[in-house]
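Q: Got a minute? One more chain.
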Amino acid sequence: MYNKDMHKIKISTSCREEIIDITLLINNYLKKEKLISGVLLIYSPHTTAGISVNENADPDVKRDINYFLKKTVPQNFGFAHNENNADAHIKGALVGFSQNFIVEDNTLQLGTWQGIFFMEFDGPRNREVWLKFTPHAH
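A: Always. Here it is, folded:
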C-alpha cells in the first residue's frame, strides 16, 4: 500500500554488486519538500539490497567493502537457496535494510566524510528506496 507521506526514489543498478551514493538524491528530496527538522527513515524494500552509511570521500572504501563481502559470503558457496543469489540475501541481512538520519535546517546531519549508500547485491536491477520523514514536534 502506498502512503502519500512516503516518497520513493527509483534507482537503476548496473552491476551484480554495486554501492551507489544516494546522499545527493536524499538532500534534494529534503530541500524540494522543505522538510526542515525531524528524522528521515531510509528503507530498501528488497531482500538482496541494503542501506548503509560510510565514508564517501575515497572510492577505495566502497571497493574494499564489496571485496570483503564477496570474500566473506561468496556467491557459489553451495547454499541451499536455489536461485543462485543466497549470498545476496545474506549480504542484505548483514548490511541491513534501513537507516534513520537526523534532519536539521533542511539537510541530513552527517559526519564530515559520511555518505548514504544503496548497496546492490543481486543486480543489475531497477530498485526503489523508500523515504519516510517524521517531523520534529514543537
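A: The chain has a mean pLDDT of 94.
Q: Perfect, thanks.
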